[in-house]
Amino acid sequence: MSDTFLGMPAFPQAARVALHNTTLRANLRHATHTIRAKRAQAVAELSDWEQLRDAGRQIKDHTLRHLDRYLIQLEQAVTESGGTVHWAVDADDANRIVADLVKATGESEVVKVKSMATQEIGLNEALAAEGITAYETDLAELIVQLGDDRPSHILVPAIHRNRAEIRAIFTSEMAAWGRAAPDGLTDSPGDLAEAARLHLREKFLRARVAISGANFMVAETGTLVVVESEGNGRMCLTLPRTLISVVGVEKVVPTWRDLEVFLQTLPRLSTAERMNPYTSMWTGTVDGDGPQDFHLVLLDNGRTDVLADAVGRQALRCIRCSACLNVCPVYERAGGHAYGSVYPGPIGAILTPQLRGTTSAIDASLPFASSLCGACYEVCPVAIDIPEVLVHLRERVVDQSGAGHRTESIAMAAVSWALRHPSVLATAERLATTTRALHPRRPPGVRAWTAGRELPELPAQSFRDWWKENHR
């Protein structure tokens, strides 16, 4: 299986294949329902949850309105603290910058903190083309990498794998990447975690270069923040000499005080914890402590285009908690791979088409990968109205393709003319009633809309005729 999502089919085709994978559906159902129940319990503990949610929305909206100012402030603070800031217009630009920085150190391998931004730009593949090996250190990302797989969830990239599958991957693939799995490895969570710990510890102690993303960047101090649950991030962010962080420009927040809101909402929504187990923060460089060279690559890659859309820009509020995936009935059945993007689920259905455009079949299909039930909006910690953006993007796709416009225009013109002529409308009603036995159950020409719907049955008498008979 390819390491990237390039060349995947549109969502309807990919989802149809996934629906027939009973193991995948069982794994997803068990995992999402477990996370969903724990999340609900964690949120219920807070009496001011809705206020926190609204505060997160306001902070993000304010920051996006003044993004230029806060990014400049961030650059100044990072530079004053001993770091170096690089601006990347797109994926190629960011990959070139990172590859050049790694090659300048003379190293041929790097350790990585889980980062969706680097997955978005295909950094691992770009580094491999330059002779540099990137080792994923997050447990789920390690499973995906060893299995030559793709991530299928924002928080738990290997959610589509069960313990038996993970054991098989560790047993067969670990040796090719470093320390082999222990003999007699079982599929118990403790044994699997220990095998990963032993395998990764050698890489942590050997690596001289680390690559990370960031959950937040604080403009007033130039501080970056990474939250994670295993401690691998702490190892990557302290042991190597050189640290390179690739972060989307939307991850900036104005002040330290703003972090208070997100450090309450993010753990409860993502892992159902009151506090995150490991919250690592770093500001530039400090002599003799931690990385001595720090580089921040600020990634655009379509984000300013999203910012220009008054409706679509709310997708940039996302703090990557994955709550929307865990409640989505479509994701639960189709899985993350069907979305053809590093960002699966409801948030991916609105973010990916805006970042990549809707010219490809898969990106044009994503806004339709939803039932518009609204569960995603109800749980979002920054109140992204995902259904609203989905409908907005559906309009864009239809306008761009022109599909159905001629038929729709003719139909609307005919209805408009009939409604302006009562006698014509009355004649049409009588004709429809008289011939109702001959009507098809589904109208022709609009199969995509009527495949799951039937026309309502016409009554034996129109309301107009009934009124005439009973109110002479």
Automatic annotation (TrEMBL):
**SUPFAM superfamilies assigned to the protein according to its UniProt record, in alphabetical order:** 4Fe-4S ferredoxins (SSF54862), NagB/RpiA/CoA transferase-like (SSF100950)
* Keywords assigned: 4Fe-4S, Electron transport, Iron, Iron-sulfur, Metal-binding, Repeat, Transport
Q: Which residues form the 4Fe-4S ferredoxin-type domain?
A: 315-384
Identify the residues that the record assigns to the LUD domain, covering every copy.
73-298
The species is Streptomyces albipurpureus
Name the chain's protein. Answer: Lactate utilization protein
Keyword Mitochondrion attributed: no
Question: By its UniProt entry, which PROSITE patterns does this protein fall under?
Answer: 4FE4S_FER_1
InterPro entries, per database record: 4Fe4S_Fe-S-bd, 4Fe4S_Fe_S_CS, FTHF_cligase-like_sf, Helical_ferredxn, LUD_dom, LutB/LldF, LutB_C, NagB/RpiA_transferase-like
Tell me the ranges covered by the Lactate utilization protein B C-terminal domain, including all copies: 395-470
